[in-house]
């Protein structure tokens, strides 16, 4: 028996809430603790941000494997396990006493993040919203907007918590949030055909290989140029998201002001994600993507060359561009590599995108420790975005952009 079509929006909504908590904390909330963790553990920015390298690599590996996991236990159970893991990570973080422990926790955080990442979201959305449905882009934009909104709201909540208690107590209290979402996830995340032998339409062939997918079909000239056009956006966005609080604290800003900087980035990212699907109703995917990339370039230029007073505008432009590029990139991948192997194809791309994000978060910290400022890393960001535009132009010439 086929479930009502509206249930698809309920499933998307449930995963939106999961992303609100899991991804919101992972990409924005945890950075609110950076200066306190650095002081408590008597470490450096580069050493602390090495956790982001580990976390993003773990996310990449988890996203690469998540298609296999979902094939065997389903989207719903995968999402629930992610919530349980996130709760355990937060509880343990409140007791952490060394960088080594932080590194381990961020390795596990990769799986929790992947449980509500775009690979899982695209499985759900592809099942409920077939290719060609104009609402598909809107559904994806809504689903992934949870991460940005979560980062904004939870940064404010954490700033308030830090004003009344120590950072360890705040972290331990946050561990309750994922557990609250388990009943909602179990109830709402369902397939259109729950009684089918393959309800999510992703089971691989009898030989264990995904139908329509081989590694060589991704790692060819088109795939590599596509990655070159996408990955810089992830590098730059990770650099901004991971270092906003530290940049503002360098300027003498309070926790509340630092939370405002996080809010500017992720609220703009939310606007980018939410609007991207609506732009596709009138503008081609390629033209829309170029517009969002241009916003990232403008923000990076302003952040590098502008005064501190323009900080919020600069990070908002970067956030808006990143928010729009994220769903559009994945929609483009889904168009080029359709079929039952989509989850695994997305896993490969997410792995490569994660390498870019890892480099942006970690290398920026390392370069700051070496050079004593963010000027060099910010100049590199701008150069990478220009390179992404060149790569996109090459794709268009090869007929891979629309």
Secondary structure blueprint with pairings:
Elements: H1 6-29, H2 34-41, H3 45-93, H4 99-114, H5 118-128, H6 135-164, H7 167-174, H8 176-180, H9 182-188, H10 215-218, H11 221-250, H12 255-279, H13 285-305, H14 311-336, H15 342-371, H16 375-397
Helix pairs in contact: 1-5, 1-6, 3-4, 3-5, 3-7, 3-9, 3-15, 5-6, 5-15, 6-12, 6-14, 11-12, 11-14, 11-15, 11-16, 12-14, 13-14, 13-16
The total count of strands amounts to 0
* Count of helical stretches: 16
Structure classification: mainly alpha
Q: Could you estimate the helical fraction of the residues in percent?
A: over 70%
What form results from the Cα inertia axes?
Answer: globular
How large, in whole angstroms, is the Cα Rg? 20 Å
Helix and strand element order: HHHHHHHHHHHHHHHH
What kind of assembly state do the chains in view correspond to? single chain
Task: State the CATH architecture.
Answer: Up-down Bundle
* Main pleated-sheet profile: none
CATH superfamily: MFS general substrate transporter like domains
Mean pLDDT: 79
Q: Give the low-confidence spans.
A: 1-5, 204-213
Distance between the termini: 38 Å
CATH topology group: Growth Hormone, Chain: A
CATH structural class: Mainly Alpha
Structure description:
- The chain is an all-alpha fold.
- The chain has one domain (6-187, 217-397): MFS general substrate transporter like domains (Growth Hormone, Chain: A).
- Helix content is 79%, strand content 0%.
- The chain is built from 16 helices and no strands.
- It has helices at 6-29, 34-41, 45-93, 99-114, 118-128, 135-164, 167-174, 176-180, 182-188, 215-218, 221-250, 255-279, 285-305, 311-336, 342-371, 375-397.
- Mean pLDDT is 79; it is low at 1-5 and 204-213.
